[in-house]
Amino acid sequence: MIGYQLTDEHEELRATVAEFARDVVAPVIGDYYERCEFPYDIVGRMGKLGLFGLPFPEEYGGMGGDIFALCLAIEELARVDSSVAITLEAAVALGAMPLYRFGSEDQRRRWLPELCAGERLAAFGLTEPGGGSDIRGGMRTTARLDAGEWVIDGSKAFITNAGTSITSLVTVLARTGEDAGRRDISTIIVPAGTPGLTVGGKYSKVGWSASDTRELAFDSCRVPADYLLGELGRGYAQFLATLDEGRVAIASLATGLAAGCVAECLRHVADREAFGHRLGHYQAIQFKLADMEARAHTARLAWYDAAARLAAGQRAKKQASIAKLIASNAAMDNARDATQIFGGYGYMNEYPVARFYRDAKVLEIGEGTSEVQRMIIARELGLNAIR
Ligand SMILES: Cc1cc2nc3c(=O)[nH]c(=O)nc-3n(C[C@H](O)[C@H](O)[C@H](O)COP(=O)(O)OP(=O)(O)OC[C@H]3O[C@@H](n4cnc5c(N)ncnc54)[C@H](O)[C@@H]3O)c2cc1C
Fold this sequence. Notes:
Layout: H1 8-35, H2 40-48, H3 67-78, H4 82-102, H5 105-116, E1 121-125, H6 135-138, E2 142-146, E3 149-160, E4 167-175, E5 185-191, E6 197-202, E7 213-224, E8 228-229, H7 235-269, E9 273-274, E10 277-278, H8 283-311, H9 317-342, H10 352-360, H11 370-380
Helix pairs in contact: 1-3, 3-4, 3-7, 4-5, 4-7, 7-8, 7-9, 7-10, 8-9, 9-10, 9-11
Bound molecules: flavin-adenine dinucleotide.
């Protein structure tokens, strides 16, 4: 038997972040969202709380926790707002984590402390305009060595945290070999402001409106040869490992959104009246809320399972994809039902459920679409061997 009882330490972290989300994020995030403005103030305070350093050792300025702790924090933030949750997720699980996992001691000491403090943010540059699911087939960005420097040409699409005034760097996946084989891709660190790197304007998005998402263009962008992350030709393996953790983190975010829908609806149905009773009196509403709670609970168990395995150093590719698939479905379904329960108010941007509705869809797309998760699960089941 495996129990999913939180340790005292995890419970304390969960409660601290819940309080922060309630007292600091909830009162103001709707305005940032409407203005499509990045919430520097909130992100700064998240940094002071230590959230950006959660899974990293103290010697680099981290909190000495693990991926499970990070996911707990992300879930609590996402109960209230997904823009701040994805900012944390992308900065830590996608941006800083590869530096910690694959970086040299010099690279870690140079960049991790400011990232752990949340003073600067890291971004992860994998997706390209020509393809996100078929990374190898779609990758056009190249990097070649010239006079002791990498020269990068190409572009990246939809990169989170890439254009804030506190962006530190982006880890860029590029073809360093002749073909698009697994050993032809490497990861290179490109600091913000490097000549030849152009940061595009903010996308106008359906949701996650207070987060920063940009296109990046590289035109003979030069960085020193020792900005290569890990070994030459290991980029493909590195991003697969990074995405295993990233998917669990996105699953925790989706779980938070699904649970946030339940919390908002419980308040609403205890108050709103129709046909002589509060909405919560009607079984049709009760059953909807029962289904919503069941989805959020199942999603939480799925990410707990995957995160606990990863934190214990175990392989969890299948569990990570299952968690991402289940939790993003739960978020979408709960956001739809919550909006319905709120009626007309659910369609008004000033209500959190409207934000949840707009924020849910991307969870089925980012860090591997639901179809990609099914491909991975099917592969893990050995179905690829059937001819
Ligand atoms: C707000 C936002 C933030 C993001 N942040 C980042 C980031 O920080 N870093 C980063 O690198 N990327 C980021 N992404 C990119 C994201 O990971 C990609 O959008 C995603 O992986 C899908 O790739 P794509 O958009 O190219 O879709 P495509 O790969 O073109 O897929 C289109 C559709 O076809 C389906 N499909 C593709 N192949 C198959 C197949 N063989 N069988 C069945 N269906 C298939 C897909 O499931 C999808 O439904 C972000 C995206 C968004 C929207």
